[in-house]
C-alpha cells in the first residue's frame, strides 16, 4: 500500500541531503552501510512517519545498497513503521516496571478515549497506538513516548487528558531528526 | 551520606554546557592524561581502581582494556554502549541527558588510553533527544580543542560520533551492537573472536557501558588507588542505581558500593520505603534479567547476614539462591503484586526481543510466554509449572549470547520461590484471575 503523503518517487529534501552528507563522514569510505539506521530515521521523519517500500528503495539507492539489505534491517527494528500511521504515534511502554505502576490501565484508557485498539489508528487519524517494550524511564512510570518526547507519570486521568490535549492542539509537521523540536522534555 | 563521584554537580544549572562543566572541574582528566601520562599508565590506573563494567556483566574494565589487540597500522575503536534497554534500568539516559560532557570527557580519556582515533557512542534510537544533547556537547568539545586534531597540543587525534539504534534490546549485547553499528540486523556474533581482536569493521574494539566510561573521569582525577578505597572488597567505587516499582521515591541514586539493601529500600536518603504503607514482597535487584528474590532473601544473605549492594553480596550463594547487581536496575514489588503476571510480562519482553538467531531462544522464549500466559489467565495445569522450568533449563547455556539466560533465570527463580503461587493459579482459577487478586501465602525461602 502506498502512502498518501509520500510522493510516488520520493526524494530527500535539500536539508536532509545535507544531513546525510554530514553523517556519511562519520564512517569509513568503504563502510557507508553503517549510516543505514540514521538514514532510516531521517526517511521516516521526512515521509510521514513511516517507511514505504519506495522510501526504503530510496534509502538503498542513497547508500548504494541492494533494496533487500534495507528491508531486512527496517523489519528487524521496532522503531520503523512499515505501514501508514496517524498524526501522532503513541508508544505505550508495557514492560514490568511500567505494569507495576499501572500501564495496563493506561493502555485501556487510551484505547477507550482514542477509539483505536493497540496497533490501530483512531478514526480521526490523530493517534496510532503502539505498545513497546521498555523505554528506560521506569522511575517515572507509566509512560508514553511521542516521537522524541516522553510523557511521564501518566497514572491519573488528568495527566492523560493533558497529554492528549497537547497533542491534539499541536500544529503538525514532520519532525526531522536534525531540527530542534521545540518540545520541552519532562525530566525525572 | 556516601561520596558522589559522577553526579556531584548534576543539578548545577547549565552543567550541560561546556563552560559551566569546565568551571566545575570538567575535562581535568583529559588534561592530566594527555599531558602527563602515557596510554599504558591510564590503563594501569583503571586496573588499580578495580572498576567493574557497569552495564551488567561486572567484568573488570581495566582487564578488558588490556585484552585489546594492538597490531601496527590497524585502526582501533572505542564504542560506548548507550543502548540502555534493560527493564528497570534508566541511569544512562539520566546521566547522558544531564551530564553529556562527563561521558564525552570519559570517551576522550578512554580513547587515548586505548589508542583509538575514531570512537562512537551507540545510543538507543528512542533517545533521539539525548542524541541531540550529545551532538551539541560534542560540537562544543571540538570548538574548545578537546576533540579533533592534535588535542591540547599533545599530538593525539580523536573524532567522536553519536550513532542511533532502531529499537532492539538485543543491541545492548556488544557484538549485536557492533553488527547494528555496521548497518545490519542486530544478531550477536559467535565468540571468539572477541571484539578486542575483531570488533567494529573487524578491527580491535572495546565496548564499554556509559557509566563505566564516565567512571574513568574520577579514576584519573583522583587516582585508581583512591577510587578503590570506596566500596567493599572487589566491589569498588560508586554505582548508579535506578530504583523503580512500588517505592516511595523511585529515581536514580549514586551509592557507594556496600550500602545494605535494607537501608537502600527504607531510608529516607534513598528510596524511602514501600509506597502506600504496604509491605515489600519481592525485589529484582539488577534489571529484569536477574533472578527475583523474596523480601526475606533480598534483605539477608544465605549465611543470614545483612545483604549489601555489592556484586558479591547480591550473588551470594550463586545465581540460583542469590541474584546479581547487574546494571543496577532495582525493581521493588509490594505485597499486592502477582508474581505469575510479572513473570509472564518479563517473558513477553524476552520473546519480543529475541533476535531469532538461535533456536533454543527463538522457540523457547515463545514457549515460556505462551505457557505463562495461560497460567496467568487461568487456563494452565500443574504440568505447565514443570514445563516452564524445563524450557528455561533448555534455553540456558545453549545460545550464542546471554539473552537466553536473561529469559530463563527470571522464570526459574520465580518458580523456585513462588511455586505455590503458580499452583494457586491452577487450583483457584476464578479467584486467581479476578482483577487485583493476590495469592495469600508466603514465598519459599530456598
TrEMBL record, chain A:
Keywords: 2Fe-2S, Iron, Iron-sulfur, Metal-binding. It comes from the Bacteria. Its cofactor is [2Fe-2S] cluster. SUPFAM superfamilies: Thioredoxin-like (SSF52833). [2Fe-2S] cluster binds at residues 93, 98, 134, 138. One of its GO terms (molecular function) is 2 iron, 2 sulfur cluster binding. The keyword Membrane does not apply. Binds 1 [2Fe-2S] cluster. Belongs to the complex I 24 kDa subunit family. This is NAD(P)H-dependent oxidoreductase subunit E. It comes from Hymenobacter oligotrophus. The lineage of its organism: Bacteria, Pseudomonadati, Bacteroidota, Cytophagia, Cytophagales.
Automatic annotation (TrEMBL), chain B:
Keywords: 4Fe-4S, Flavoprotein, FMN, Iron, Iron-sulfur, Metal-binding, NAD, Oxidoreductase, Quinone, Translocase. The keyword Protease does not apply. GO terms for molecular function: 4 iron, 4 sulfur cluster binding; FMN binding; metal ion binding; NAD binding; NADH dehydrogenase (ubiquinone) activity; NADH dehydrogenase activity; quinone binding. Coiled coil: none annotated. Its EC number is 7.1.1.-. It comes from Hymenobacter oligotrophus. Its cofactor is [4Fe-4S] cluster; FMN. This is NADH-quinone oxidoreductase subunit F. It catalyses: a quinone + NADH + 5 H(+)(in) = a quinol + NAD(+) + 4 H(+)(out). The gene is nuoF. NDH-1 shuttles electrons from NADH, via FMN and iron-sulfur (Fe-S) centers, to quinones in the respiratory chain. The keyword Flavoprotein applies. InterPro entries: ComplexI_51kDa_subunit, NADH-UbQ_OxRdtase_51kDa_CS, NADH-UbQ_OxRdtase_suF, Nuo51_FMN-bd, Nuo51_FMN-bd_sf, Nuop51_4Fe4S-bd, Nuop51_4Fe4S-bd_sf. Belongs to the complex I 51 kDa subunit family.
Amino acid at each position: 500500500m502506498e502512502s498518501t503523503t509520500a510522493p510516488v518517487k520520493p526524494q530527500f529534501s535539500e536539508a536532509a541531503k545535507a544531513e546525510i552528507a554530514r553523517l556519511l563522514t562519520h564512517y569509513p569510505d568503504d563502510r557507508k552501510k553503517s549510516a543505514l539506521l540514521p538514514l532510516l530515521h531521517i526517511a521516516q521523519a521526512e515521509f510521514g512517519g513511516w517507511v514505504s517500500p519506495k522510501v526504503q528503495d530510496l534509502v538503498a539507492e542513497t547508500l548504494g545498497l541492494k533494496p533487500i539489505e534495507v528491508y531486512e534491517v527496517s523489519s528487524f527494528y521496532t522503531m520503523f513503521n512499515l505501514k501508514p500511521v496517524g498524526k501522532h504515534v503513541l508508544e505505550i511502554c508495557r514492560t514490568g516496571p511500567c505494569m507495576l505502576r499501572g500501564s495496563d490501565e493506561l493502555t485501556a484508557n487510551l484505547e477507550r478515549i482514542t477509539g483505536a485498539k493497540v496497533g490501530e489508528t483512531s478514526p480521526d487519524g490523530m493517534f496510532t497506538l503502539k505498545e513497546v517494550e521498555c523505554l528506560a524511564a521506569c522511575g517515572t512510570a507509566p509512560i508514553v513516548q511521542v516521537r522524541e518526547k516522553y510523557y511521564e507519570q501518566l497514572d491519573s486521568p488528568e495527566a492523560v487528558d493533558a497529554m492528549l490535549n497537547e497533542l491534539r492542539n499541536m500544529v503538525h509537521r514532520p519532525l526531522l531528526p536534525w531540527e530542534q523540536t521545540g518540545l520541552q522534555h519532562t525530566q525525572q | 551520606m556516601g561520596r558522589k563521584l559522577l553526579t556531584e554537580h548534576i543539578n548545577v544549572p547549565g552543567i550541560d554546557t561546556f563552560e559551566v562543566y569546565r568551571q566545575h572541574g570538567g575535562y581535568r582528566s583529559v588534561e592530566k592524561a594527555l599531558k602527563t601520562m602515557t596510554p599504558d599508565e591510564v590503563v594501569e590506573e583503571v586496573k588499580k581502581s578495580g572498576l567493574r563494567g557497569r552495564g551488567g556483566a561486572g567484568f573488570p574494565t581495566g582487564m578488558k582494556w588490556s585484552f585489546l589487540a594492538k597490531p601496527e597500522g590497524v585502526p582501533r575503536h572505542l564504542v560506548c554502549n548507550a543502548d540502555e534497554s534493560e527493564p528497570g534500568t534508566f541511569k544512562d539516559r539520566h546521566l547522558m541527558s544531564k551530564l553529556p560532557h562527563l561521558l564525552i570527557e570519559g570517551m576522550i580519556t578512554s580513547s587515548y588510553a586505548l589508542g583509538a582515533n575514531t570512537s562512537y557512542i551507540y545510543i538507543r534510537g528512542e533517545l533521539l533527544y539525548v542524541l541531540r544533547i550529545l551532538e551539541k556537547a560534542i560540537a562544543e568539545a571540538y570548538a574548545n580543542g578537546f576533540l579533533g586534531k592534535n588535542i591540547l597540543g599533545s599530538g593525539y587525534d580523536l573524532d567522536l560520533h553519536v550513532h542511533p539504534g532502531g529499537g532492539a534490546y538485543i543491541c545492548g549485547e556488544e557484538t549485536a551492537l557492533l553488527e547494528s553499528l555496521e548497518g545490519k540486523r542486530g544478531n550477536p556474533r559467535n565468540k571468539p573472536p572477541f571484539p578486542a581482536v575483531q570488533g567494529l569493521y573487524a578491527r580491535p574494539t572495546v565496548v564499554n557501558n556509559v557509566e563505566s566510561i564516565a567512571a574513568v573521569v574520577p579514576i584519573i582525577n583522583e587516582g585508581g588507588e583512591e577510587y578503590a578505597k570506596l566500596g567493599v572488597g572487589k566491589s569498588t567505587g560508586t554505582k548508579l542505581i535506578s530504583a523503580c516499582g512500588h517505592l516511595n521515591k523511585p529515581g536514580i541514586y549514586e551509592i557507594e558500593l556496600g550500602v545494605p539493601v535494607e537501608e537502600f529500600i527504607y531510608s529516607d536518603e534513598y528510596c524511602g520505603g514501600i509506597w502506600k504503607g504496604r509491605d515489600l514482597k519481592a525485589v529484582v535487584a539488577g534489571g529484569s534479567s536477574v533472578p527475583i528474590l523474596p523480601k526475606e532473601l533480598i534483605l539477608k544473605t544465605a549465611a543470614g547476614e545483612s545483604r549489601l549492594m555489592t556484586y558479591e553480596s547480591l550473588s551470594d550463594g550463586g545465581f540460583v539462591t542469590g541474584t546479581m547487581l547487574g546494571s543496577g536496575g532495582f525493581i521493588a514489588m509490594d505485597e499486592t503484586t502477582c508474581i505469575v503476571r510479572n513473570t509472564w510480562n518479563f517473558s513477553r519482553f524476552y520473546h519480543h526481543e529475541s533476535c531469532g538467531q538461535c533456536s533454543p531462544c527463538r522457540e523457547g522464549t515463545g514457549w515460556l510466554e505462551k505457557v505463562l500466559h495461560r497460567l496467568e489467565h487461568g487456563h494452565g495445569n500443574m504440568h505447565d509449572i514443570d514445563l516452564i522450568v524445563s524450557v528455561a533449563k533448555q534455553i540456558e547455556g545453549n545460545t550464542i549470547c546471554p539473552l537466553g539466560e536473561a529469559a530463563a533465570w527470571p522464570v526459574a527463580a520465580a518458580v523456585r520461590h513462588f511455586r505455590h503461587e503458580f499452583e494457586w493459579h491452577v487450583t483457584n482459577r476464578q479467584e486467581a484471575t479476578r482483577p487485583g487478586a493476590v495469592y495469600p501465602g508466603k514465598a519459599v525461602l530456598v
